[in-house]
Batch of 2 targets.
Target 1
Amino acid sequence: MMTPVKALLAASMTALLAAGCGNPPDRAGDTGDSTDSLGGEITVVGSTTVQPVAEVLAGAFEELHPGCVITVQGGGSSVGVTSAGQGAADIGSVSRDISPGEFAEFPGLVVHTIARDGIAVVADPGVPVDGLTIDQVRGIFSGSITNWSAVGGPDMPIVVVSREEGSGTRGAFEELMLGEGVQISSGAILQASNGAILTTVSGTPGAIGYLSFGYLDPSVKALSIDGVAPTPANAANGTYTAVRPLNLVTSGDPDGLARAWIDFIYSADGQAIVVEQGYLSVNG
Amino acid sequence: MTRKGAVESAMRTVLLCAGLASLLIVAMTGIFILREAMPAFREVGVWRLLSGSEWRPGQELYGLLPMIAGSGLVTLGAVCLGLPIALGCGIFLAETAPGWIRGVVKPSIELLAGIPSVVYGLFGLVVLVPAVRGFDYPGNAGFGLLSASIVLAVMILPTIASVSEVAIRSVPDEYRKGALALGSTRWEMIRTVVLPAARSGILSAVVLGLGRAVGETIAMIMVIGNSVMMPSAMGGPLPGIFLSRARTLTGNIAVEMSYATGLHSSALFATGVVLFVLIMLVNSAARALMARNAGGGRG
């Protein structure tokens, strides 16, 4: 004889099983009243800078198309290129330009720039310097300028904070600000994420570092470069030039779900999400 | 065969498999790491990896010497700071502690061993780094070997204290009675009879602490600065080297692994091989010492 509890359990199990079989309708090949032919699953792997905005874009798309699953993973920009190139992921995400070496290794890569992101030089708010010239930035990060007094500040040692080798943000900073042949001093404190850079720069007197626009907050001071403040408006009108693309890469032209998702990102709704997340729209 | 006998032999097989599993896991881990590191050993060369002082993966420069020096110095610093306290703790617990104090101190040392290392790192970041920053020294920003050594000293304290306590306890009581009967004071007895008799056990406690120190990762990343540079005293007196930033072997892997591909990734596995060999050396040293201790105790 069944006790009431067991009966209830059995009933709910049956209900669950029934629901499990019926869902999702798209994948069951339901061609009846559904006009949405999209379904299936894709994986996006790569840059930790792109990851947060990609997750929001994936969530918004899944709401519009309930039969689709878009899984977003981190790992880093280089991992994004390799994963897409080798076919381990449907889409790779990369927070920098694709290098010639990477195109040589994976000639079929197709790049989709979904947003742009500025890189700001930030300092400890206790430093009474509001701006630097690009040459001063190069001098400081390469280790030839070591005291704030050399750039118009007080007699205070400069503590350089940087991302680790291989980081997309570091790669973009080196390319956009330091240029060829200038290396970040080996004495720089290295931190492995944008968040750790923020904490270290805000907590260390005399510290200087660099951050993605999306991570700027009042605990650090964003410095003007050659007189131009690092704001989304200045980046959008082209006066602030340390701007990098946020890319998705696919192996060959994307089709199916990947195509639909990328088209969604380029739509007005998708670009509105990009701007909401603190990045610059690619539609100008 | 009786039913009892069948269970008995089945259990023996199950236990044998469990024992072999751990062996298999160590062997497979070793082989896997070695296989992944092979491209780096082949293309960079073992000697260049071990002796190169430049680590710039962007320019295909893979030298592990700064990290070997960093790991070595931070371990040395931790032992110098931690050993006196840990050994004092072990002597206190084994020889002089009244029962009720022992009942409080012993569990708190065990608790110290159970705190996750990220918590020690956080403490170091919030308390030690700003405190060390107070030293007026060129280039000092608080992050560096001194902060890391202090954190690590606390982390190896429980290991050294409890293993050396056991070693001191295992010294036969006749030795103590004999020393006291000859007229020595309590401290003279500990210094001239008990500690020398427990010497190899204490040494193995230190070596076990070393193993723990070399392997520590996250707490080090948080306070050591992670700069790829040979630690230097920056023109000051030699002890100033501990105010220098550095990077440990473990930190090298943890900081860069997520972004590494190709030869860079392989070079990080090579870092793992170096660590594997170091830990193996340290552990076999500890085993050899303990074996000698066990033999000496009976003789």
Target 2
Amino acid sequence: MLGFLIRRIIQSIFVMLAVALIAFMMFRFMGDPVNSMVAETATTEEREAVRERLGLDQPLWVQYGRFVARAAQGDFGLSWRNARPVSTLLAERFPATAELVLVAAGLSLLVGIPLGILTALKPGSLSAQTLQFVSLIGISLPTFVTGILLILVFSVWLNWLPSFGRGTVVDIGWWSTGFLTVSGLKALILPSVMLCLFQLTLIMRLVRAEMMEVLRTDYIKFARARGLPNRSIHFRHALKNTLIPVITIFGLQLGGLIAFAIITETVFQWPGMGALFIQAVSFGDVPVMAAYLVLVSLIFVVINTSVDLLYAVLDPRLRADAARAAH
Amino acid sequence: MADTTFHRALDSDLFWSFRKSWTARVSSLVLLVLFGAAIFAPWLATQNPYDISQLFLLDSELPPMWIDGGDPRYILGTDQQARDLYSAILYGLRLSLVVGFASVALAAALGITLGLLGGFLGGIVDAAIMRVADILLSFPAILVALLVNGIARGVLPPDQHADAAIWVLILAIGLTNWVQYARTVRGSTMVERQKEYVQAARINGVSGSGIMIQHILPNVLGPVLVIATINLGMAVLTEATLSFLGVGMPATQPSLGTLIRIGNEYLFSGIWWVVIFPSVVLVVLVLAVNLLGDWLRDALNPKLR
């Protein structure tokens, strides 16, 4: 188990170093930072002085090492577009994205798992078939089209919910939350529904497939033979084994939610990190792009690693496999 | 010769499965219509949406012709710049499909080459390719595509962004999607490499590249077709998403995604048609490609027969 843990962590560190290398290359080869720091009339000597002061005359691997050291402390320099520290920009935007992603993830679990169980227990019923069909549409619709349709129906035609922004937010320290006001909560509804829809259908389908598989196994047959009530068989015995793969997929998809939040934030003009990233992409603002890339990768790597470890804790078979593979 | 090939095609399992599946028939019919519309767009369209001299500002924001205030010259209505929506959708569909096909071709070429190399050579080459593939695969495609897009934009001078947009998109989507091809081709190459015909070729003194291209490649291409079909749907969707986000095709040369973005900006003025019609075309296109891909995957999978 310890060997597995160490191997997994070393692997994660390599991934992060690779991502940092990409970020570093972006800095190094997209535009000459010296040009933006000196006057246009500067002489070659003045340019060289700036180059030396910035450490750009040193070998690439030294520069890379310094870049990693600074990135590890969260220092990505100034945004090229609005000349503010990138770390401040990201910190301002982080709460909006985090709240959106958390609510969407929660919704997809709270709705997806019960619907999956329902469709697995009564596969032929009308409600189950309707749900299957609706979920097919849910998977096929591009997310931004879903978002536009939601706005068209609930904001333009019915005028029930706001179509942009976070509503009124309350600042708690550096964290600004929309959870504490009515308008903040109302503003969360449409974006989080849009964001969770794809994942919800995925979880529903997964739970359904796993549950049907588990219900066919011997231990469930034994439980039935022992005369246990259905409720106990379904929810105490079957559900437990169903949820293991759900945890993995959910973890992996959590990263996907952060990426897809880029689209949601654009549709709903949500002031999060994704919207910041899109602006950076369209202006070629390297420091913001690089910092976003490193931050999101870090989140991904942490999630993926913890899911793998959690999986090993939950499923003893995997531990045995890992031990065997190590020898 | 051609005659017998034709009869063999009619007799094949694939064709039989095609006739049996109504989703395959409907979706291929839909695709045929959409591809035809894209290819013949200049003849089917009533105006050239790229030509500003053909736009009459007085005709802007007209609703579809069957609604009060609509004009029979503009079947699906017009947008804010008085562009005929029907013509703009035809041209947009054309652009979306061009980007889709080109990026699938790029991804397939890249993936097949790297997969063959990795599977045939093994060792450090293989390890390096697969490591990169693993890392790429652990990130959502849209994020990678956005990143490539952003880097290209940073490298190119701003005044060339609009002209280069289509190439940047093809590059971004192609570089994102090669992993699946590489993994599949690598897997089958490793199996094929062990077979006797490869050993025979080796004994005959055929060079490594000769064996890879002439002997192994034809035998590993089957699954690539399925991946390419499913990938086309993904590629079209990614293009639309990037254009919708404002980092794809510019408003002067709108693809379906750009049209949806333009429509989205005016959603609140009640002009719903600019956003709805391109969305419908996009959804129908992607759905048809996906259904056809699903059918193809099942039909070519001998385990399911």
